[in-house]
Specification:
Layout: H1 14-52, H2 60-63, E1 67-68, E2 72-73, E3 79-85, E4 91-94, H3 102-105, H4 114-118, H5 120-123, H6 130-139, E5 143-144, E6 147-150, H7 154-164, E7 169-174, E8 181-187, H8 195-204, H9 216-219, H10 229-239, E9 248-250, E10 253-256, E11 259-262, E12 270-272, H11 274-279, H12 283-291, H13 295-304, H14 330-337, H15 347-358, E13 362-364, E14 369-373, E15 379-382, E16 387-390, H16 394-410, E17 422-431, E18 439-449, E19 453-461, H17 467-484
Parallel strand pairs: 1-5, 2-6
Antiparallel strand pairs: 2-3, 3-4, 6-14, 7-8, 7-19, 9-12, 10-11, 13-16, 14-15, 17-18, 18-19
Helix pairs in contact: 7-17, 12-14
């Protein structure tokens, strides 16, 4: 019996082969086209404004040919920056409050800074009524640009500005539940109205980090002093659940290798537990604490707290530094634990850490633009608060709140006690040179009432001495203005 041969599949004809190849190529190009259209739509919706608003995009300058730059307003409607138009059509950017808002609002000559920079695209767009824009175009007139309404509270800004006085330093106030920046003051300041005509004088008024153009709130790097004990305490709490057993006898100084650490003004605090070590800001106790910490865990904690990282803000900022690692010697460990050594931090960074503590461990992204509107006040876009993430647990935040409350009730922040609001915080005196007695004065803390909620205030006074003497009174003026007026 003959074996039946298997049937062979017929080979596709040359025309069928060509049609198949044509279909593959067609589908490929259709797919690429759809991807391109999708990305174009994504770019237009989510990314185009970022690219257009880039300071490197020269296209922005063409908008100024057709639009009068919009105003920048405080949260209560005061014009912080506006464009004056003369009869001959010439324009002058005017800042009614001079240096008070210089670093927060910025300037618009010889480059840009502040809101004038990262809000540039918005200020040069116009959402005036369509027919009005058409008529202006026919008549050769410029349209009026959109306004930026900020989160800045005029009263708080004025109070912080006056309270800092002739001192060099910075003050920042935030709403920890939303991230709204309520005040931002940096001194020395400058008159943004004089930038166009007096630029050479402004840039020659000290240089580098001492320049009047530096926004010390976000760009000033300082040793944190005793405010850093907030983080040292947090690490100790994580490593020692039985922290209530901590006991130390402060004799005013402690020898470590070839160095000796002293408490501020050589104070002798005597017997202390952890809470009173924090409230009295005892350097020797915290040097002792630091020597017992896991250095790598401490470094990881500070990394989680954004040290060495860019802050989530629109303003240019410098990264804070923390250099402790497993190889660090005892001298460096002890100095770091009390906020000295090589640790550097910006006032804004300390304000964000404090905000997370005041907000049950959650950090809200700080923002300064509340909404944009056309020149007639019709809202164009609202900006909402967004969560950055959890910096610590709610339980850890609650425990640090207790420690910071003791600073006010029994420690170095006692000037804030007895008020209608409940205040908490941490003072600091940060040595910055080898000259005895030279130190920056710090305070970072918050206050709250049931009616008005919570506000965070961070203050640094350069070469101000002790935080309790120089920084706390400034914070108190800001708290008082917020809660009492």
């Amino acid at each position: 019996m003959k074996k039946q041969s298997a049937k062979r599949k017929p080979r596709p004809s040359s025309n069928q082969q060509k049609n198949r190849e044509f279909a593959v190529i067609t589908y490929l190009f259709v797919g690429l086209f759809l991807i391109l259209i999708g990305y174009f739509a994504y770019f237009q919706i989510y990314k185009s404004e970022d690219f257009i608003n880039s300071p490197y995009n020269t296209r922005q300058e063409t908008f100024a040919e057709h639009v009068v730059r919009g105003e920048i307003l405080s949260a209560d409607g005061k014009a912080l920056a506006q464009t004056l138009v003369e009869e001959d059509g010439s324009e002058t950017r005017y800042y009614p409050y001079g240096g008070m808002f210089a670093h927060a609002v910025g300037y618009d000559s010889n480059g840009r800074s502040g809101i004038e920079s990262f809000g540039n695209f918005t200020l040069l767009r116009s959402h005036a009524f369509f027919l009005e824009q058409v008529i202006n175009g026919i008549q050769g007139k410029k349209n009026k640009g959109d306004n930026i309404v900020t989160t800045l509270d005029y009263n708080l800004q004025e109070t912080a500005y006056q309270a800092l006085g002739s001192n060099r330093g910075a003050v920042v106030a935030l709403d920890p539940s939303t991230g709204r920046i309520l005040a931002m003051v940096s001194k020395p300041d400058f008159d943004p109205n004089a930038v166009a005509t007096g630029w050479e004088s402004i840039i020659s008024d000290t240089e580098g980090e001492n320049s009047v153009l530096v926004n010390r709130v976000t760009q000033g790097l300082y040793p944190p002093g005793s405010t850093f004990k907030i983080l040292t305490t947090l690490e100790y709490l994580r490593e020692n659940p039985d922290y209530q057993k901590y006991a130390y006898e402060c004799m005013g100084s402690i020898p470590i290798n070839k160095t000796e650490i002293h408490c501020y003004n050589n104070a002798v605090h005597g017997a202390e537990d952890l809470e009173m070590s924090f409230a009295k800001s005892c350097n020797t106790s915290y040097a002792n604490i630091g020597l017992g910490l896991d250095k790598r865990a401490f470094s990881n904690l500070c990394s989680d707290m954004m040290f060495g990282k860019s802050l989530p803000i629109s303003y240019p900022s410098n990264k804070s530094s923390f250099v402790l690692d497993g190889k660090s010697d005892p001298d460096q460990v002890a100095q770091t634990a009390i906020g000295q050594g090589e640790t550097l931090v910006t006032p804004m960074h300390m304000a964000l850490i404090t905000s997370a503590i005041a907000n049950q461990g959650i950090l809200m992204r700080p923002y300064v633009i509340d909404h944009t509107e056309n020149y007639k006040g019709v809202t164009v876009k609202n900006y909402r608060s967004t969560e950055y993430g959890s910096l610590l647990t709610s339980g850890e935040a609650a425990k640090l709140q207790e420690f910071m409350s003791l600073v006010v009730s029994q420690g170095t922040g006692s000037a804030l006690s007895g008020q209608a609001y409940q205040a908490a915080g941490k003072t600091g005196s940060a040595e910055f040179s080898n000259v005895k007695g030279e130190s920056h004065a710090w305070f970072t803390g918050y206050a709250s009432t049931e009616e008005k909620g919570t506000i965070v205030v961070t203050v640094i006074v350069e070469n101000g001495g002790s935080g309790s003497a120089a920084a706390v009174p400034i914070a108190k003026q800001v708290f008082d203005r917020y809660f009492y007026e």
